[in-house]
TrEMBL record:
It comes from the Eukaryota. InterPro entries: DUF4220, DUF594. Residues 47-287 form the DUF4220 domain. Keywords: Membrane, Transmembrane, Transmembrane helix. This is DUF4220 domain-containing protein. The chain crosses the membrane at residues 145-170.
């Protein structure tokens, strides 16, 4: 890409920072390269049909009203996914030396004020990564004609299934026919004149309904499966990127109004079943004062699943993206290490340095946040953005300790053991003193909870969490100041955890199960140069593959 930027693909308009460098989108397999002592060099580019992101950006929006910023971002996600895929394959990526690409990514991902756009770009990138490793879509799009053949085969299957059904409906209008009809035939005998041939009535067994219904159900199932296959191709992001690239490559398409309308129609299609990023975050809580007793909650408890899964609120997205924008300042403040601080103005309330590790520090602050949440519940006011951010990220971090400790910098076995110990102690304390908490008013509930934790708990995490919660609840500056401090603390914690976890295998598993907020932030930090992945060590440990 650096050679493309300096070579014949360099465009005069690329001087603008709003126009991206030639990040490769598609058709790089047509390039010819030769190996040199210090890497590879392109030796044929003019007739390769290579599509780069700058060509998509430079399309005339006035003639192509269907090509929105969202579609351009989709092509950008595809180009970035190819760079991220190299890291997952343990190849050494020198993209950080490509200054033009770094500047543009920072402009799109950090300087842009639309946080939803930033989340969308990275979510689509992880979606492409999921498809590449866990679906057959990349194989289907290896050749441009393969998706067309697949759609044609699906349409043929639908027609082949519907044709006999239509014949059955036309020839057999109802289900009242019997499955078996027996005719009674009596032989004539001269000595018995009462026995006449055909005097007996026909005997019918069963209904044709029982034969045709399974057939109809089977045909309906096949039709639905094939229709889903067609819809997956029509609404797939792979199809949209391929169409945009074909539109860029073929000038004749750009001159045809019919083709422009058809391409625009496909780009506007949406299908929820094709979304791999659910835009949700798992939630867990140690202090469960009013446990749900429904069958779903009991089943989740037996299967050791998270308490619930919530949609990522917009304030949470805004908070974490703002934290990513100032992450370099956070690292300088902590001298490049993990310890973070919970402080109000200049008063230090808590620091990670007071804990044994990241996991128990997060659990301490999670308990304190839960106590402050109990106190705020009695006010019956709409939740502020700071409270939404603090409570959601607090419960998400508790979920990471409980269910995904591999994504944390601490040892996974130790994380699970400390969570189970704290959870067991908290359950015992709440069980023994549950009557005191349940009979208290909302204003008194947090005080009773603090007394239980400080007096009856045995684990130091519960005691420290209870004390921190009391200090937050009694801040003279007010409750909103406490929520603001917690929101900033939790945002910095989640971003720092994402930057500290460089285990590519665990992020790959997170992508396989639908994505994690930490993985999304890790990919974002990797693209803006705030995370260094030691692919050389990973390759030595796991073995680099032969091809990406």
């Amino acid at each position: 890409m650096e050679q493309l930027h300096d070579g014949m693909f360099h465009h005069a308009n690329l001087a603008s920072e709003h126009v991206p460098p030639p990040l490769i989108v598609m058709r790089e397999e047509n390039l010819l390269v030769e190996k040199q002592p210090h890497g590879y060099n392109l030796i044929r580019m003019a007739d390769s049909g290579l599509v780069t992101i700058d060509k998509v950006w430079l399309l005339d929006d006035t003639l192509n009203s269907w090509l929105t910023t969202q579609h351009k971002d989709l092509c950008l996600s595809f180009a970035m996914y190819k760079l991220l895929r190299c890291q997952f394959a343990r190849y050494k990526v020198s993209e950080t030396n490509f200054a033009k690409a770094n500047n543009f990514r920072r402009h799109v991902l950090l300087e842009d004020k639309d946080d939803e756009r930033v989340f969308g770009v990275i979510a689509h990138e992880l979606s492409f990564l999921h498809d590449y490793y866990y679906t057959s879509l990349p194989v289907s799009y290896a050749k441009s004609w393969l998706p067309i053949v697949s759609v044609f085969i699906s349409l043929s299957c639908i027609g082949y299934c519907l044709f006999p059904i239509i014949i059955f409906i036309v020839t057999i209008p109802g289900f009242s026919y019997a499955q078996i009809i027996c005719h009674q035939v009596h032989c004539h005998h001269e000595s018995d004149p009462l026995h006449m041939p055909g005097s007996g009535a026909d005997v019918q067994f069963g209904k044709l309904f029982y034969d045709l219904l399974p057939l109809y159900l089977l045909v309906a199932l096949v039709v639905l499966v094939e229709a889903r296959e067609i819809a997956s191709y029509m609404s797939s992001n792979w199809t949209k990127v391929a169409l945009i690239c074909g539109y860029v490559k073929h000038t004749s398409w750009q001159k045809s109004s019919v083709i422009r309308k058809c391409v625009g129609l496909v780009l506007r299609t949406r299908c929820k079943i094709m979304k791999h990023w659910e835009d949700k975050m798992n939630q867990c809580s140690i202090l469960v004062l009013h446990a749900r007793r429904n069958p779903v909650a009991l089943l989740r408890h037996l299967l050791h699943l998270p308490d619930q899964k919530k949609k990522v609120p917009r304030p949470v997205k805004t908070a974490v993206i703002d934290t990513v924008r100032r992450y370099e300042r956070i690292k300088r403040r902590s001298n490049g290490t993990t310890p973070l601080q919970l402080q109000v103005n200049d008063d230090l309330l808590w620091s990670f340095e007071e804990a044994k590790g990241t996991s128990d520090a997060m659990l301490v602050c999670h308990i304190a946040t839960s106590i402050l949440e109990v106190r705020s519940r009695g006010h019956k006011q709409p939740l502020s953005d700071h409270e939404i951010v603090a409570t959601h990220l607090s419960q998400y971090c508790a979920y990471l300790v409980a269910n995904s400790p591999e994504l944390l910098p601490d040892d996974a076995v130790w994380c699970r053991s400390i969570y189970e110990a704290v959870k067991k102690d908290a359950t015992r304390v709440l069980r023994d003193g549950g009557d005191q908490v349940s009979t208290a008013t909302p204003e008194e509930e947090h005080q009773q909870l603090f007394k239980l934790l400080s007096g009856q708990s045995k684990h130091h995490v519960l005691k420290d969490g209870g004390e921190l919660g009391r200090r937050l609840a009694e801040l003279p500056e007010g409750e909103e100041v406490a929520w603001k401090a917690l929101a900033e603390f939790w945002s910095e914690t989640v971003v720092s955890v994402a930057a500290a976890c460089d285990n590519i295998d665990e992020h790959a598993e997170a992508v396989a199960r639908g994505g994690e907020l930490v993985t999304l932030l890790w990919a974002l930090l990797a693209h803006v140069g705030s995370v260094h992945v030691d692919t050389a060590d990973a390759a030595a440990t796991h073995g680099a593959p032969d091809a990406v």
